[in-house]
Amino acid sequence: MDDRRFDALARALAAPGSRRRALRLLAGGALGGLLGLRAEPASAAAPRLTAAPRVVTKTATGATVAWRTDVAADSLVRYGATHTYPKRAYDAVQIAVHRVALVGLTPNTLHHYQVRSGNAAGASAFSADAHVRTCPSARPAFCRRACAAPDDPRSTACCVDLVTDERHCGRCGGACSPGETCCGGGCVDAAVDPTHCGGCNRPCRNPYVCVERVCEGGTCRQMLRDEACPDGGFVCDAERGCVCPEGQPSCPGEVGGQECCPAGTTCVGTPSGPLCCASGKVCVEEQVLTCCPNATDVCTNYGGQCCAGQACGYDGCCAAGSGTTCSFGGQTGTEEEDGICCASGKSCGPPQRCCTSPNAICKLFSSDCCESGKICWSRTGDGGPCCPNATDVCVGWDGTQCCPPERACNNPDGTLVCCASACVDGLCAPT
Fold first, then answer.
1. In a designed cystine with 228, which of 60, 121, 210, 431 is the match (CB 3.0 to 4.6 A)?
2. Does the model's pTM come out above 0.70?
């Protein structure tokens, strides 16, 4: 039977009060003649519906209809919000047990449907107009166990929400235990479940590694765990995580770990790691740091030691209050490592040796100090004696003889000589 004739028969069956008459007409052939149908031979008799169509399951947007025929036939369902059946679902497979899904339905709405099964010869059997009400969107699953009249196609009492229904949690009949709540299709104890604490989807979040939040009596409570913080004196704070105790600065290094400085100290970042100093003064030698005890300390010349005074020599220090001063020596003592702490502030060398008098001068290439401050150098500049007194006069043909000034006299040749006793009127007095 083609669709035009099927539609005519469907309208006749759907008309109020005329179903019996339509069936009698169809059975007697009157309606077949009216629609231009020719009688079928016995071998091509129309299939009979041995089980009327019924809704076996439904959702908010679909339903599944099932029926039986006495012989194998195809399956066609016309359906829609009215009995004009604007939609269709068809299965060409010749079977006796029919099952067709209806899709694209509107939630919580009464829909009409009618089934037809035809054999290969074109003879068909039809059902009367039937109805199905879809489930509401809030309860989209169909559970036969959920209601007393599961086969009532107009009822939505069998519709449940498998996500939240504690009697059908995750599946039909999957009841939660007393005291449990259905959350996301699973039964949970909201009194202790940290993901659903006090209700579905109310997690107890752990914002920091040391803050553990647990669910107790349906309320999230936090537990602070100092042991979860890294080594270095850190403690757990509910608002900030792992922090240093109050009054102790955090001290990170450029490379390496982090620690908490003791109270009253200052953090000094270092290439090798954190360093805490009470003074804030640090001396560095080859990336090895030393924390100085005083903020006013200075570092020794090569940086490795702290000095509460004046840096002197390779790694020495003229201590403050010691009365010494760093001296770099005489004519050759000019390098920092040659320095030596002297009370007089004067030294000779190398090797460096402190002089007694601050006015002392150094002999050439020697650590000897000329305490008087007077040396009679030879004309060639290669040394001479250290005079006992600073007022002595250098005499002699090469000027290397020390002479008290009262004994120095001029020779006729213009050189100075040192008299044995005294020089009188430019002449040495007789002894």
1. 210
2. no
